[in-house]
């Protein structure tokens, strides 16, 4: 070998090593950026898994840093929405928290339609990634007045220990090779998932056969329709899965093995994980790079410098956090070629929830005191935030298979696709069967938070279209009142009509945008926003006020509804749902009797056809007129988002009406007659009005206008919101000012907790609540290491479930389910 060739090879190897070193630094940098920027997660605990029309939904929303699961330092504002089956938002809450959790509630309108509703929670910042990161929970809401099958819309997995039992139709089989690909002549593991035509998990047995119909392996699926296939693909041979339905063979082709490539295999033994990296005989692992991370935090890395075919790593889980761990192998060209997910469940991180009841066997209408504390594995106190519901088991099914804050934050929120009944994996500690099944889940799902190609090579990995909200913002744009009505940079002033008033000034930018805030308030506050073309010192110039102000209502701007990756309840016991419906009907009847007796009103029976809401509204408006129905009408109650428009802009929306430069015409005829609140008026009287001043506008043309004299060119009839135009006819409303009510944050109602000792009404009122108690926020800290709660039992002798969920100060989620019997 010549000297030049040796030097050339040396230079090539040094260059390759240098490139991989730089790539290694790039990976560290990008992961560090990801954890510093960090996504946010939200989890919502509700008091019950299902409800009836007219019921109350009590909930606690937890907002956390998506990497550490500690309190998020970004957003302070949470949006929680109740959405019907038609994807319409029927109720929305804007909540403020300066902690990790905040309480909220919904009152379910009795007039709503029953169905599977969606509870959705998110922050504005989470919208940067679309709806993929939103919390989505299905809430069945039933009509108690209908004798219907309550579980008709619910489906639960079919899990049978008898493979192929009753199988009549061809199921769907999906295959997931470990690491991503099968490689010829390398021993391979592959998960298989089986669903029936209705999408339910089923158990089957089958065989793996080669193209010569030789059986090379067999497999069986059990829980979650999952099974494991192991075999070594031979060169130039194809393989298929074979199952029998009614003695007929059904074939499913397997993924084709690659002739060359890399393999990443992981074995999870609980206390440690063993990672095996190998390559086919015609390749080398030199300059490959293995990276392991938990939610973006680096836990392991290895740059292979040797010309090897295989290496093994043993990694202890003793110091690792719980949750999904991602291992990715990059080839010598810095491309991600293998990925494997592993779930870490470290017993050292377990939190014990300890409850102490003042009465072990309480009776009906008994007062019970409950003490709660948290301990770690060494029995030392743990601090954090938690919430608690106590519900009647005979009516409210509380399965340990249901998802909770632990399963959501550690499992569902980091995996693509839906994980059904995730609580199953945590029902029993250190259970080999559950660990085995969970590992199959890891094999059959991908990491959802980011793609390596996007993270490493995109300059726009973090889009800040939506900024974290720290409070309420009041924003809008300023435009020319006349002419081309272009956006202008006007001087603006905000005034909260409080005691004392609060005022602030701001110059709108070149696009007319102004934005005040963040503010934190709960009440509705009367608010003024003023604008001037120049400044607030030049009001002697009439044209200085020729500014139109258009508000932007962020609260009503909700993202598109998506129902992917729903958090569904595990509902299998129909008898309990039937009990719930019966109990809800009885409660409704008792409430009705109580209210009737409380008000002591004589019974009045009214029989009438239920009028359409719009028809009702038109009849109400017609009562303010003396001409009946108009030719055309604008009802501002239907156009809340346009209240900031000038009256000329509103009139231009009416058919046949042209409003421009202080003049109005109907069908291009002369000036129409102008009437305000029934009083003849002039153009100058309405010129500076906006939609905020108007209730509705009618246009009368031709024969419709004969009620008025001198109305040959038609009539423009304006009706103000106050109806007092006649008292203010000489007061000209100036432009450049709008008034409205700024809506504050929602404050949760207090859970109704009857006092059966000191309460007056409770003495004669039957108590059959399905939610015995709801405690939305219990904070444990050094000053209060133990939570003390008290509640009354009801009139029902039943078993009750105590469900507690929460987060420790260091971000460890926990869930607890225990039981209370009332005699």
TrEMBL record:
It comes from the Bacteria. Keywords: Cell outer membrane, Membrane, Transmembrane, Transmembrane beta strand, Transport. It is found in: Cell outer membrane. This is TonB-dependent receptor plug domain-containing protein. The keyword Nucleotide-binding does not apply. Its main location: membrane. Gene3D superfamilies: 2.60.40.1930, TonB-dependent receptor, plug domain. Belongs to the TonB-dependent receptor family. The lineage of its organism: Bacteria, Pseudomonadati, Bacteroidota, Flavobacteriia, Flavobacteriales. Residues 631-715 form the TonB-dependent receptor plug domain. The keyword Nucleus does not apply. GO terms for cellular component: cell outer membrane. It is a multi-pass membrane protein.
């Amino acid at each position: 070998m010549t000297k030049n060739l040796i030097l050339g090879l040396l230079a090539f190897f040094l260059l390759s090593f240098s490139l991989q070193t730089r790539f290694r630094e790039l990976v560290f940098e990008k992961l560090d950026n990801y954890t510093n920027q960090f996504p946010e997660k939200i989890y919502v605990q509700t008091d019950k898994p299902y409800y009836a029309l007219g019921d109350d939904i009590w909930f606690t929303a937890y907002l956390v840093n998506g990497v550490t699961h500690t309190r998020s330092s970004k957003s302070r504002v949470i949006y929680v929405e109740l959405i019907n089956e038609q994807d319409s938002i029927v109720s929305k809450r804007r909540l403020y928290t300066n902690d990790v959790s905040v309480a909220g509630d919904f009152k379910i309108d009795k007039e709503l339609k029953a169905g599977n509703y969606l509870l959705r929670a998110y922050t504005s910042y989470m919208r940067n990634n679309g709806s993929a990161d939103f919390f989505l929970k299905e809430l069945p809401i039933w009509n108690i007045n209908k004798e219907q099958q309550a579980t008709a819309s619910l489906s639960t997995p079919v899990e049978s220990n008898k493979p192929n039992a009753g199988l009549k139709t061809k199921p769907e089989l999906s295959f997931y090779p470990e690491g991503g690909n099968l490689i010829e002549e390398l021993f391979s593991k592959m998960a298989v998932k089986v669903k029936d035509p209705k999408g339910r998990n089923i158990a089957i047995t089958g065989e793996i056969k080669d193209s010569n119909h030789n059986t090379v392996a067999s497999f069986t699926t059990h829980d979650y329709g999952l099974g494991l296939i192991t075999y070594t693909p031979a060169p130039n041979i194809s393989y298929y899965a074979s199952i029998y339905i009614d003695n007929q063979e059904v074939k499913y082709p397997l993924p084709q093995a690659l002739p060359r490539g890399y393999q990443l295999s992981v074995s999870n033994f609980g206390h440690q994980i063993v990672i095996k990296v190998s390559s086919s005989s015609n390749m080398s692992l030199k300059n490959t790079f293995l990276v392991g991370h938990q939610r973006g935090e680096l836990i392991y890395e290895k740059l292979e410098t040797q010309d090897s075919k295989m290496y093994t790593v043993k990694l202890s889980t003793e110091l690792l956090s719980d949750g999904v761990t991602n291992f990715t192998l990059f080839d010598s060209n810095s491309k991600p070629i293998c990925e494997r997910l592993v779930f870490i469940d470290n017993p050292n991180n377990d939190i014990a929830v300890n409850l102490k009841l003042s009465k072990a066997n309480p009776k009906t209408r008994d007062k019970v005191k409950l003490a709660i504390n948290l301990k770690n594995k060494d029995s030392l106190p743990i601090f954090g935030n938690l919430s608690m519901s106590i519900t009647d088991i005979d009516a409210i099914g509380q399965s340990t298979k249901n998802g909770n804050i632990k399963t959501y934050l550690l499992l569902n929120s980091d995996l693509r696709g839906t994980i059904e009944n995730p609580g199953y994996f945590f029902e029993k500690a250190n259970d080999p069967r559950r660990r085995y099944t969970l590992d199959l889940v890891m094999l059959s799902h991908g990491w959802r938070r980011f793609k390596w190609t996007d993270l490493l090579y995109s300059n726009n990995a973090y889009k800040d279209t939506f900024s974290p909200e720290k409070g309420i913002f009041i924003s809008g744009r300023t435009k020319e009142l006349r002419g081309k009505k272009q956006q202008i940079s006007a001087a603006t002033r905000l005034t909260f009509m409080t005691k004392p008033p609060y005022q602030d000034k701001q110059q709108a930018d070149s696009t007319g945008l102004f934005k005040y805030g963040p503010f934190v308030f709960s009440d509705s506050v009367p608010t003024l926003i003023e604008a001037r073309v120049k400044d607030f010192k030049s009001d002697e110039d009439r044209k200085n006020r020729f500014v139109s102000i258009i508000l932007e209502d962020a609260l009503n701007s909700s993202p598109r509804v998506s129902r992917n990756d729903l958090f569904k309840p595990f509902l299998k016991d129909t008898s309990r749902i039937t009990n719930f419906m019966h109990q809800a009907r009885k409660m409704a009847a008792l409430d009705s009797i109580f209210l009737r007796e409380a008000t002591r009103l004589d019974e009045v029976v009214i029989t009438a056809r239920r009028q359409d809401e719009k028809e009702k509204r038109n009849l109400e408006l017609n009562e303010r007129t003396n001409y009946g129905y108009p030719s055309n009408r604008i009802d501002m109650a239907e156009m809340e988002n346009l209240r900031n428009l000038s009256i000329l802009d509103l009139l231009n929306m009416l058919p046949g009406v042209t409003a421009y430069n202080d003049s109005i015409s109907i069908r291009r005829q002369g000036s129409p007659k102008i009437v305000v609140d029934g009083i003849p008026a002039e153009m100058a009287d309405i010129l500076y009005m906006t939609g905020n001043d108007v209730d509705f506008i009618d246009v009368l043309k031709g024969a419709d206008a004969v009620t008025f004299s001198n109305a040959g060119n038609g009539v423009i009839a304006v009706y103000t919101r106050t109806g007092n135009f006649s008292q203010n006819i000489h007061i000209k409303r100036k432009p450049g000012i709008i008034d409205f009510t700024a809506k504050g944050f929602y404050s949760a109602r207090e859970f109704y907790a009857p006092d059966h000792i000191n309460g007056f009404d409770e003495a004669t009122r039957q108590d059959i609540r399905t939610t015995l108690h709801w405690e939305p926020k219990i904070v444990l800290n050094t000053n209060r290491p133990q939570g003390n709660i008290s509640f009354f039992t009801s009139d029902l002798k039943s078993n009750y479930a105590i469900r507690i969920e929460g987060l420790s100060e260091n971000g460890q989620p926990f869930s607890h389910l225990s039981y209370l019997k009332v005699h």
